[in-house]
Amino acid sequence: MLDIAIQKTLRTGKRSFQLNVQLQSASQHTVLFGQSGAGKSLTLKAIAGLMTPDSGHIRLGGRLLFSQPGGVNLAPQARQLGYLFQDYALFPHLTVRQNVAFGLARGWLNPRTSAQYDEVEHWLHSFGLAAMAQQLPGELSGGQRQRVALARALVAKPRALLLDEPFAALDPALRHDMRQTLLALLAQVQIPLLLITHDEQDVALFGQQVFELHDGQAHAANLATFTEATPRHD
Amino acid sequence: MDTVWGALALSLKVAGLATLLAALSGVATGFVLARGRFPGRDVLDTLLTLPMVLPPTVLGYYLLVLLGRQGALGGWLQAQWGVNLIFSWQGAVIAAAVVAFPLVFKPARAAFEAVDCQLEQAAQVLGISRLAVFFRITLPLAWRGILAGILLAFARALGEFGATLMVAGSIPGKTQTLSIAVYEAVQAGQDDVANLLVGVISAVCITVLLAAGYLAPGRVAQR
Question: Do B126 and A156 touch (CB under 8 A)?
């Protein structure tokens, strides 16, 4: 399903960071666990094509996305992945409906506020966003914004979903709700998932296979050591 | 009276075309310097800002050297197309565009830098080409800052005197813009003409500044 071996050296001033991630996962739902600064987001960006590794390969669902040497480096546009950014990256100047429909309008113009696409209306309804379809993202709550971002990614019919710390920005009560929303969604649509998190509860709930990232290196970890029972009152 | 309205029409034509040139080139270079990572970026930024601080007459001299018959560009234009920009209204457009350029370029760069790169990345992942992302995400989010710069550039082009006089001279009905006509009128002791010219140009500039202030970022919450 997922086969990654990438190397990247990043330099900022005199400090340098080595990313050297190797992992293979045959599971539908894979979780990358690690503290911030371990290289989780970089790995996710490399898979999406937003960061180009120095060398290595990335294979997802039987498709070769990147290979160096080998000269393969698909553009982000060609990878057909759904990416949920940590702070959602909703387009602030477009309404909820325009945001969700964004990937369906391919030309130089944004979808109209009145544009009607069946898929868009479907996800707006199933995520309870229909009532606020004409509002701007700035007027929404955190949970609503996340559902808009998820709908926007799903409308494009991605081959896999990449989630960057999807619940970190939410307060505990909302976090519980959104986890249930995502679990229900995953039961409904068959889509490979790669989730990165620093929260053990996410690992226990979503992981079928888990890797721990530390200092730019990935190690296979035992799922049983992560429990969702640990109440975290943060 | 005809000289006043003729000069106003010429001024608006020259300033309008100069602003168009400055806007297109200023937005493009502003974007390249905001997003590009290349050596010499700071030096290039300084060079492009120079027209804002150089005395207009010095700038006009540089343009004369460049665009004159003996100049590198002027000689080529003359030989290739038979075009001579010196003492023409087109020359006045070039002079005003160069002077107005930093007023678009500076705020455009700042406005592009204020746009979150992650929004552009999100749009790319959704399958939208880089060029389309520029027109659908980057430009709309940076537009207010750019527009305020364009209006200031128009006001500056309208008031251009030194560089325009050096390059295009002061030929009534041909290259004599409003701000140059004011100088000529005062020199000739025509106080009534000077009064009218000063009133007209002041009214136009106040209107432009009011519009720029209304469009400046921060007045209306963007997000």
Answer: yes
Q: Which residue from A minimizes the CA distance to B134?
A: A108
| Residue A84 touches chain B, beta carbons under 8 Å | no
Q: What pLDDT does A115 receive?
A: 84
Do A106 and B128 count as a contact with CB atoms less than 8 A apart?
yes
Q: Convert the pLDDT of each residue in B1-49 to its tens digit.
A: 577 888 889 999 999 999 999 999 999 999 999 998 888 899 999 999 9
What digits encode the pLDDT tens for the residues A186-203?
A: 888 889 999 999 988 888
Which domain, by its residues, includes B179? 2-55+90-215
B199 touches chain A (CB under 8 A): no
Q: What total of structural domains would you count in chain B?
A: 1
Chain centroid, CA A2 distance in Å: 14
CA torsion sign, B33 to B38 to B41 to B44?
negative
When CB atoms are compared, the residue of A83, A93, A108 closest to B125 is A83
A156 to chain B: which residues are within 8 Å by CB?
A: 126-127
Contact residues on chain B for A106, CB-CB shorter than 8 A:
127-128, 132
Checking DSSP bridges between strand A82-84 and strand A161-164, what pairing results, if any?
A: parallel
pLDDT digit string, tens, across residues B124-162:
999 999 999 999 999 999 998 899 899 989 999 998 999
Domain-located, residue B211: yes
B159 in a domain, yes or no? yes
Exposed/middle/buried for B163, CB within 10 Å: 0-12, 13-18, 19+? buried
Q: Tokens standing for A61?
A: 């669902």
Asked, for residue B73, whether it belongs to a domain, the answer is no
Return the amino acid letter for B5.
W
CATH number, residue B172 = 1.10.3720.10
Please check whether residue B122 lies inside any domain of the structure. yes
Does residue A139 sit at the B interface (CB-CB below 8 Å)? no
- Report the C-alpha gap between A32 and A144 in whole angstroms: 25
Of A81, A85, A93, the CB nearest to B118: A85
Q: Which parts of chain A register pLDDT below 50?
A: 233-234
